[in-house]
Amino acid sequence: MFKLEFFIIWSIFYLCRILFLKKETNPAVLLISFFLSITPLQVNIPIGKSEYQILSGSLGSQMYIFLPFILFCLAFPLFQFKLKMDWWDKRNRWIWIVLGLFGMSFLNSDNENSTGTLVALCLFSSCILFFATINSNVSYKTILKGTYDGFFVLGIANFILAVCFPILNMKIVTTLFHLTGDVGATRMGSESRAGAIGFFAHPGALALYSTISSVFFLFYILNKQNVKKSNFIFLLNLVTIVLTFSRTTYLVYILVIFLSYYILKNPKKSIFSLKNVLRLFLPLGLLFLWIIVFSPLSDIFLESDVNQQFDNRALHWLMAIEAFKQAPIFGVGLNTHLIYFSKHPTILKNLELSPFFLENPIHNIHLILLVELGLVGFIMWIIFLGRSVANSKFDISKGQNTALSITQIGTVIVYIFYGLTGWAPFSLNILPYFLFIMYFAEKYRGVH
Hints:
The chain is mainly alpha-helical and 448 residues long. 66% of the residues lie in helices and 1% in strands. The protein has 18 helices and two strands. It has helices at 3-20, 27-38, 67-79, 93-107, 114-137, 140-167, 181-185, 203-222, 227-244, 247-265, 274-294, 298-302, 306-326, 337-343, 355-359, 365-397, 402-418, 431-443, and strands at residues 45-46, 64-65. It has a two-stranded antiparallel sheet.
């Protein structure tokens, strides 16, 4: 594995950019870019040794000093940042609610692994602390420039690696940064669906990230800003997504880009009116039908392992429902559901389960939250997603905070629909992007 060596090379590359572009570019832009471009490598410093051999939840069992906290510590001497936070700003409410859910998990008597919850808390607090430091010392335009640069650089890097594998079949690139990258790239050895992973550990994570990134660049394309660069990276993202062979993402990508385009072009119109259902969603449904049944991609959907994968997910969902019945109000604790399964085998009754189901998170992020946080956390999650879309659409209709607002809407749609069949949205190399977008989209409400 080449992770540490590459991290050093990547750091030198960005330091050189800071030195040579000092007069033209705010160093904070490159700090943001560095964070966004290096996140999928999961460059975190392990602390101690995990108590369990299996994952505790989607964020694992191992305690780390996470990259955002490392960058937070480096930011002060390198950029002379000063941390100024208005902790009682109403735009911080969602952060306090999340912290309250962590407190609920720690006090929960059904929590079988408080260390797993602590792992999640450390990741969340590291990200928020780093984001707050940036927010306190840079402008809105700097945030956008840093995001643009980071997504642009990572998009090119992901595309290059996608060409290396699967197109050129250079399998060695799948294990450059992740020990089990080859397993993810081949779907646990299924060469028939070998897909690109880029900087990530699994094709689904790469496809998910590339979709979110594409929504961000769509804003610049439609607003005629950096059009050539934005078109270029938008196209690279699309090719990269195709090369992941992620069936779910193919459909989610079309839905997300379609809705994002419509919202940007018709910011003051309702999305779910009867007219739109007939004029927009019906043709979209027919397009999905064509892709799944009649298009050249139909083999991926109909003649591969789709039935087996559906059965696997259905069993995972059944496990989730059984666990939810045991702790319906407060759940079993954040980032702990796999440990709960292992310590309470009787809730699975007479199900014959392979190790896969006990070692991999539930393939549905909404069910993960339902199991881990119960009805309390699940309701909060639904409210947060709905509120985020409503507030972002309002901002777009007023011509405010448009770039981050449309990216937030796109991200929420991705999480809703991709999250129905996978857990990648809650993985260590994707969740920081979600938190980044949510944090800054909320902090810059109403900014022109």
